[in-house]
Amino acid sequence: MSNTRLVVLISGSGSNLQAIINACQSNQIKGEVVAVISNKDNAYGLTRAANAGINTRVLSHKTFATREDYDVELASLIDSFNPDLVVLAGFMRILSPDLVQKFNGKMLNIHPSLLPKYQGLNTHQRAIDAKDDVHGVSVHFVTEELDGGPVVLQAKVPILADDTADTLAQRVHEQEHIIYPLVVQWFSEHRLTMEADYAIFDDQPLPAQGATYPK
Ligand SMILES: Nc1nc2c(c(=O)[nH]1)N[C@@H](CN(C=O)c1ccc(C(=O)N[C@@H](CCC(=O)O)C(=O)O)cc1)CN2
Ligand SMILES: NCC(=O)N[C@@H]1O[C@H](COP(=O)([O-])[O-])[C@@H](O)[C@H]1O
Hints:
phosphoribosylglycinamide formyltransferase activity, Phosphoribosylglycinamide formyltransferase, purine biosynthesis, EC 2.1.2.2, binds glycinamide ribonucleotide, binds ligand LMY7XDAE, transferase, Rossmann fold, 6 helices, seven-stranded mixed sheet
């Protein structure tokens, strides 16, 4: 089975990118990150990629008249690396239908909430403001509906009485760095399909290594 070719899209720090790079280097994921693309030239994730010897590209959305024009260029750039899987890792642009359709079934996103709760932005603060006692993270296939695609795996994170958005985000990040590599590993082992209705993982944080959940 050949290595899964991953193209990762970022906009910021790239800690999830780093988790995936690490998982590829440890052979947890039978794949390689062949390129990292950012819409922001100051994304620290670009430094992480360069340090790992990975191709990097910056495609700023600010130089395009419309979202659609940007996405035509972005789709072409992604395609140029011949990916098996496109991984959105803190990529902060809403993707237009044509691009989503082009990579249908081979584009994943990680979202910091227990979808379908809190689609969109500022999820940690929204959960705190709502006085929720649990928050978390979801890995899902990307569809036209923003953060509405089929969920593959979730991890729950309790909200503590003295939590701020930052302290909560830190604990959510810890679970992100476990479940995203795991889902990408499952994809690299050809064990995921958009049509399946995967179990939503409950309560306990995942073990760091190789749980086997998909059917
Ligand atoms: N068609 C889809 N596009 C994207 C999805 C998706 O599921 N379907 N997931 C998002 C990721 N995301 C949350 O997980 C998200 C990213 C960005 C935004 C957003 O409102 N972006 C604004 C700009 C915000 C900024 O620049 O800070 C915008 O694009 O106008 C919401 C949710 C990735 N895309
Ligand atoms: N709506 C998308 C979204 O908010 N994604 C979130 O952006 C962060 C990126 O962190 P990273 O750059 O350190 O991986 C992550 O917490 C991810 O869940």
